[in-house]
Amino acid sequence: MDSFWSRALRHKSFVVGGVLTLLLTAAALLSLLWTPYPYAEIDIPKKLQAPSAQHWLGTDSLGRDIVSQLLVGSQNSIVVGVIAVGIGLGLGVLLGCVAAARGGWLDEVIMRASDFTFAFPALLTAIMLTAIYGPGLVMSIVAIGIFNVPVFARITRGSAQAVWAREFVLAARAAGKGPWRITLDHVLPNIASVLIVQATISFATAILAEAALSYLGLGTQPPQPSWGRMLNEAQTQMFQAPLLALWPGMAIVLSVLGLNLLGDGLRDLMDPKLARRR
User: What residues does each domain of the chain span?
Assistant: First the structure.
């Protein structure tokens, strides 16, 4: 463990990604306890103000404080990322392990179902769900979560099949262990690092997808702030107040960049071959 952290602190991608991810998490936690102003408070006389000591990043077209909206909007990013990735991780890993352990027609059915799901990206799934149930954060989470299931299923299956061909697994089978016992004792521990890296990358993708859905009006609904909807509202004020689009755009960019860098760093640190090169 000491060796891992000593290498991690020398890995630039891991450090930068970790700092940016911690800032995102800190912003979400801080917004639960404190914001400079109530995020939904409308103050028309103070609309479109430039950054100042009273409003650090200015105000929007309704006089709402930008900092407060950015802080509360980070909650949506965290919630969508955690739940959507959790859905994909839970169902995808289960299906991938079943496909690798059983093989045959069951493996073929699971993989073809994954191919079918890939034909419906998160945005298209969200449009279909919105048409039936109406727009909202829950529909965004469900759509992104469904899209993540085949991603994790394919990665789990491919990684698990490589482990199933290893000598220690063959020895476990010769010793009489069943497929599920082997999966729990040998397969999952050996593919955990791959799944952790994919989870961080999928987290970044979920944040980006939620912002896109909110931008289109399919995600988080007013008055709850969302970085994507803040971008949508800012586009009508681009010439009067261009900074309105800059702040949520930077929040999305830095969050996604941080998680991707963190995922790249974890991949390098957890891959024995890459670790030895460092």
Answer: 12-33+55-277
